Amino acid sequence: MAQSLQLFTSSTTRSPSISLPKHSLSKTPSSSTAAFRLPVSFNKFSIRASSSPDLNPLSSASTSQVLVSENGSSSGGGFVSTSATTREFVPAVSDGSSIDVDTVTEAELKENGFRSTRRTKLVCTIGPVTCGFEQLEALAVGGMNVARINMCHGTREWHRMVIERVRRLNEEKGYAVAIMMDTEGSEIHMGDLGGASSAKAEDGEIWTFSVRAFDSTLPERTINVNYEGFAEDVRVGDDLLVDGGMVRFEVIEKIGPDVKCLCTDPGLLLPRANLTFWRDGHLVRERNAMLPTISSKDWLDIDFGIAEGVDFLAISFVKSAEVIKHLKSYIAARSRGSDISIIAKIESLDSLKNLEEIIVASDGAMVARGDLGAQIPLEQVPSVQQKVVQLCRRLNKPVIVASQLLESMIEYPTPTRAEVADVSEAVRQRADALMLSGESAMGQFPEKALTVLRSVSLRIEKWWRDEKRHEAMELPEVGSSYSDSILEEICNSTAKMANNLEVDAIFVYTKTGHMASLLSRCRPDCPIFAFTSTTSVRRRLNLQWGLIPFRLSFSDDMENNLNKTFMLLKARNLIKSGDLVLAVSDMLQSIQVMNVP
Ligand SMILES: Nc1ncnc2c1ncn2[C@@H]1O[C@H](COP(=O)(O)OP(=O)(O)OP(=O)(O)O)[C@@H](O)[C@H]1O
Ligand SMILES: CC(=O)C(=O)O
């Protein structure tokens, strides 16, 4: 089907121009753009002074603080628009009340309290030290964009409680914290240490690994293993690595279901830690390769996640694209329209073998360096990380860099210099998100760890902007249709124009979030404010680099919508008088475009 597209510019002194293929463009006569043309003085409102660069305190946001007055300066802005697939306007979904589209309402201000312009997103694993409402709120205030719950640990009741608290936090305080549920996967791991929170294995100690269920008659220093074939598969002389090598044992004897091991690298044993065994310097993986990626327990957990409406499902030990496709069709059949994004965890040799097709099939990826480092030599982990980050960007999928970013902060209040350098490198690679694991789940300083991630991210992002290190990477097309190509062209050109003109912000009005995602992929210098009418789209966008997502009700009068978004952002001190803004949209029916006969 032929597509067409319109380009709008306001009649101001700094009208940006955009270069797009001639056959896809038609310049709109200004009379037909009335509904969408920016008011000449759209960017000239008086505002309050702004505060911190990352988090502005939640204002009480009374209407009087929000109202703006024009002051008559003369710079301008542009509005580039395209129509995507729908002509229907999307109504608000969150409150069902009547929609006042002329002005931003108190309810919308409250709903959109979230106001950080940090580009790198932060994921926190929630555990015993962070599951209380106040602790969750402290993490949200500290910049948590996504709360991760790990189904390896805790009961479903416990996870349900965390989900409810995060939801309440979003509703009461205006955050958009998304929930990511991480499956256990069916790799070999230890049991739960009989209720102890950890156990110390010392150098030279003998420990027994057994498939027998934990009970008090077992010898001291016995660890339960979840895999029935364990004693059969290991051989005397094998190395047994706990938690990717945090503790190491050598197998010295097999007695029926029990395997006696000598501790050769001492350390802390944590409940349900992953186990791998190595022989003659190679990972023994035949058995693991035969285990299903999604175990029967995982399927029950997935049902739980669907019922609870989680935003992301992170799937452990993905081996092929097929499992992701299978899961997606299962979710589509079960969730009746609700949209859950699938994040493939890259943490095994098999996932590396099939990397590109796995990422294409998924909605995002996680470089799960903990288990990955137990399956490939540690010195290969950094190059694999960079490869996955670049590939995800090329394929337009958000990517999370996870594990041991600030491991020492589980015990100490400051990170090591090496950890700061590691975080900086992930930010410099422009990964979408960084993830805290034990640091926020069971560490002594969860908020401090988050503060370190936040401040290092802000510092490195600013350093790279100041250095004008624009992304050099040529972005290949990811869409398969002509209309996808148009969207991509617009986003690529908008990002380029934003950098060239040094604009202050890009606004994207988006229905499904796809256009926002394409803009994020370009990693422009300025923040991207993404406006959507759907609460769940807003939360999902909160994982992606540079996107600051808001939910608002819209009319099909673009001028109203623009004014409304200016009001909101001014109220949140995110834009100010004289700022230059580029706006693009994939959701507004009236920005239509005709098929050339
Ligand atoms: N819900 C929870 N309840 C209790 N402890 C938890 C919980 N979630 C995490 N933890 C603790 O925090 C540690 C780090 O969390 P993390 O989610 O990284 O687990 P993990 O066991 O390393 O699994 P994975 O390999 O999937 O990351 C865990 O080993 C566990 O001790
Ligand atoms: C996060 C995770 O699962 C890992 O690093 O192994």
UniProtKB/TrEMBL annotation:
Record bears the keyword Lipoprotein: no
Superkingdom of origin: Eukaryota
N-terminal signal peptide: none
Reactions catalysed, as given in the entry: pyruvate + ATP = phosphoenolpyruvate + ADP + H(+)
Organism taxonomic ancestry: Eukaryota, Viridiplantae, Streptophyta, Embryophyta, Tracheophyta
InterPro entries per the UniProt record, alphabetical: Pyr_Knase, Pyrv/PenolPyrv_kinase-like_dom, Pyrv_kinase-like_dom_sf, Pyrv_Knase-like_insert_dom_sf, Pyrv_Knase_AS, Pyrv_Knase_brl, Pyrv_Knase_C, Pyrv_Knase_C_sf
Gene Ontology terms: cellular component: chloroplast stroma
Stretches assigned to the Pyruvate kinase C-terminal domain: 488-587
Name this polypeptide is given: Pyruvate kinase
Cofactor(s) of this protein: K(+); Mg(2+)
PROSITE patterns in the record: PYRUVATE_KINASE (PS00110)
EC number: 2.7.1.40
Species whose genome carries this gene: Cucurbita maxima
Disordered: annotated segments: 1-30
Family of this protein: Belongs to the pyruvate kinase family.
Domain Pyruvate kinase barrel: 118-449
Record keyword Ribosomal protein present: no
